[in-house]
Amino acid sequence: xxxxxxxxxxxxxxxxxxxxxxxxxEGTIFGGVILSLIDQAAFIEAxxxxxxxxxxVSFNEVEFHKPVFVGDVLTLWAQTTxxxxxxxxxxxxxxxxxRTHPDVEVPVTEADVVFVAVDESxxxxxxxxxx
Length: 131
Fold this sequence. Notes:
This protein is α+β, with helices and mostly antiparallel strands. The protein has one domain: Thiol Ester Dehydrase, Chain A (Roll). It has one helix and five strands; from the N terminus they run βαββββ. It has one helix at 31-49, and strands at residues 14-17, 53-59, 73-83, 87-97, 105-118. A five-stranded antiparallel sheet has the order 1-3-4-5-2, with helices on one face. The chain is elongated. The two termini are 15 Å apart. The mean pLDDT is 95.
């Protein structure tokens, strides 16, 4: 691992209760809501590594393994896996704590998110100063 990367945080990037406003017609949480939370968790981790304006460049393939229900508490863990010159890659894992079984956390999905650091004009800028 790159020695410029700070070690993983011991606290989750985000914990949030899923609410009825986030449900689809089937009564489960919209995938897009979870994707938005993944993007936010990744941004929190990127900012922990180096404070910049970041723009999302890509998500890798995201596959939902289990549904998320109203009342579930989602925990999003984020860890930096790579820092390039102007880009940073964050791995985010999503767990659901079921309202009906609070002692159980179910893996829901995971994703790798790539950001590019940008300056005030929107041009790419180095994530970290030169070594």
